[in-house]
Design goal:
Structural class: alpha/beta
Strand order of the largest sheet: 1-2-4-3
Radius of gyration: 19 Å
Number of strands: 4
Shape: globular
Oligomer: single chain
Largest sheet: 4 strands, mixed
Number of helices: 15
């Protein structure tokens, strides 16, 4: 099944809840960047609702960022804990989210089109199936012009594996690029997020801790196929340096061999291969 791209009001709601909280300030304190104009508009529009129960509870769930997948999964599944479901509905009404979405419809439509065109450059869902085995759930990408504004979030349910991610950031005070203006960066982030989620979900605990390394290695391989060998190798060099992933070239080579064997129909014990790769 090809990877799907859509705009999702449940996830836009979550971005607006974060916009109303002190999350934007938290991100700037971690590392300053220029937020997307839709995110900035949401911050200005919804910050007067910072003390709303849905805002404060959502912010607690997000924590320092580690809770974002849980927060977005609650939104996707509409299974907010306790009284939060009623509070979220009230926030959506009081904040007049439908009017906000309509006001910024052009930006959201453009982002969805851009992301769909970028992801059409190569079949990420098929690549993940070749590497990690078939997945019955749909793979869905949701563009994020709200918050979090500098990181992807991966989550899912019984029917879908979902990644939401902002457009590539620009330097300094420049606004973010469109997905189509930096397709290699967009593809790398999206591929890594899906791969990390799949690795974390399928591997035993002692190997799942290596999901960052494995996700980056998978993104390198995918980018080589989507944008050419130079793009993938450039990503590998950059990520090895910036994240301190000294084993990355060896893990990329190992996953490349595993991928070739699987595509040739040869049986491969994924856990054993990964255990060997990450132990070197």
């Amino acid at each position: 099944m090809p990877l799907l791209v859509r705009t999702d009001d449940r996830l836009r709601l979550t971005g607006c809840l974060l916009a109303a909280s002190d999350w934007p300030e938290h991100e700037q304190n971690v590392k300053a960047y220029k937020a997307h104009r839709v995110a900035e508009a949401a911050r200005k529009t919804f910050s007067p609702l910072r003390d709303h129960p849905a805002v404060t509870a959502s912010r607690r769930l997000a924590g320092d960022g580690k809770g974002l997948p849980t927060l977005f999964a609650h939104a996707l599944n509409d299974d907010w804990p306790g009284d939060l479901a009623a509070a979220v509905r009230d926030f959506a009404e009081v904040a007049k989210l439908t009017d906000f979405y309509a006001e910024h419809a052009t930006d959201f439509e453009q982002a969805e089109t851009d992301a769909r065109n970028v992801l059409a450059r190569a079949d990420l869902a098929q690549f993940l199936a070749d590497l990690l085995g078939a997945e019955q759930r749909a793979h869905v990408f949701v563009p994020n012009l709200l918050y979090p504004g500098r990181q992807p979030v991966a989550f899912g349910n019984a029917a879908e594996v979902v990644v939401t991610a902002p457009p590539p950031l620009a330097w300094g005070s420049s606004p973010p690029w469109r997905y189509s203006e930096r397709p290699d960066e967009a593809l790398a982030v999206i591929a890594e997020a899906f791969a990390r989620y799949r690795f974390s979900a399928s591997l035993p605990a002692e190997l799942a801790s290596q999901s960052e390394m494995l996700g980056v290695a998978a993104a390198v391989l995918f980018l080589r196929e989507a944008e050419g060998p130079d793009a993938g190798d450039q990503l590998m060099v950059m990520q090895k340096k910036t994240r301190g992933l000294k084993q990355l070239p060896a893990v990329v080579a190992g996953l490349e061999t595993l991928l070739a064997k699987r595509r040739a129909g040869r049986p491969v014990d994924l856990n054993q291969v990964i255990s060997t790769l990450t132990a070197t």
